[in-house]
Write a structure and sequence with these properties.
Oligomer: single chain
CATH topology of the largest domain: Apoptosis, Tumor Necrosis Factor Receptor Associated Protein 2, Chain A
Number of strands: 17
CATH architecture of the largest domain: Sandwich
Order of helices and strands: HEHEEHEEEEEEEEEEEEEE
Shape: globular
Largest sheet: 6 strands, mixed
Structural class: mainly beta
Length: 301
């Protein structure tokens, strides 16, 4: 029922985090083919890419990815248009609105603070690919320290039943201030409600993991001659990191979610460049922009 992975899953969750007290500078959505640059401070950065060469092929079957979620997106849309349910204080809402990450590029449907630690925020949004439904859960740290989190909860469908075979993991090694960690929950043919309930064994405390020194992450979307879209990225750092993760949500021109991907790499070099196959076509899938989250973890303190 629970999926408690070791370092990989943890890092996949953490992937959703980033550096110590630093913030990621988000820019306005870019058109496909236009570069976007984000400066990450002492916390952020790094995605995974060992060899640009291996992934430089325009063949959509040759992606650079280690733990990616690749979906055939023939059609996609949000299950339905709903009024957001915001269950946080005005102060928390103000802090979320002021985040310099890509958090606010996502039109979250539910936002709440279900834990005793009210500076840890849970946000959810649903989307659909063909007949398959998904829930994206974001865990955001609004405290002023890197936090370590543990526990799990269960997402519900619109009938009120819980997805007990696919829990929402709170296993994050280090989530930096102002950073968000994402997780995708597949619902199959069932439609998610957007609500996560029955949180269990929750523990939140200061993390004992370090983040890498300040780094810069830049990326661009580029279609090839057959209209297959690739994500080109360039990560610059000062030290070797134990692991890096990047997650991104793909949107169409109407702001609907088309796809979600994540990638984790271990023993990341200070400089990392790569080319990531999206398995999507620019015009056919109406791709417009991304929301990108990058996290890097260093040694234990």
């Amino acid at each position: 029922m629970r999926k408690r992975t070791a370092l990989t899953a943890a890092l996949a969750a953490i992937m959703l985090l980033s550096g110590c007290g630093s913030k990621v500078t988000a820019t306005e959505p870019k058109e496909v083919g236009e570069a976007e640059n984000s400066t990450y401070s002492s916390e952020d950065v790094n995605v995974d890419a060992e060899s640009s060469e291996e992934s430089s092929s325009s063949d959509p079957e040759n992606p650079l990815q280690s733990e990616s979620v690749a979906n055939d997106a023939d059609s996609s849309s949000t299950p339905e248009t709903v009024e957001p349910i915001i269950e946080v204080t005005d102060d928390i809402k103000g802090q979320l609105d002021a985040l310099e990450t890509d958090y606010n590029k996502i039109n979250w449907e539910r936002v709440s603070t279900p834990f005793e630690e009210k500076d840890i925020v849970v946000s959810t949004i649903r989307y659909q690919e063909g007949n398959n439904h998904y829930l994206i859960v974001g865990i955001t740290n609004l405290s002023d320290i890197d936090v370590w989190t543990e526990g799990w909860g269960f997402a519900t469908d619109i009938a009120g039943d819980t997805m007990e075979d696919e829990d929402v993991s709170l296993h994050i090694l280090a989530l930096a201030p102002g950073q968000t960690s994402l997780q995708q929950i597949p619902f199959g043919f069932d439609v998610p409600s957007g609500e996560v309930v029955d949180w269990q064994n929750v523990e939140i405390k200061e993390s004992y993991w370090d983040y890498a020194s300040p780094s810069t992450f830049s990326w661009s979307l580029e279609p090839d001659e057959d209209d297959w879209v690739f994500l080109n990225f360039d990560v610059q750092g000062d030290v070797m990191e134990d692991a890096s993760t990047f997650q991104f949500v793909v949107f169409d021109k109407e702001g609907n979610i088309i796809d979600y991907r994540e990638n984790t790499k271990f023993d990341v070099k200070p400089e990392w460049k790569g080319r990531y196959s999206m398995h999507l076509k620019k015009d056919e899938n109406n791709i417009d922009h991304l929301a990108v989250f990058v996290q890097t973890i260093g040694d234990k303190r």
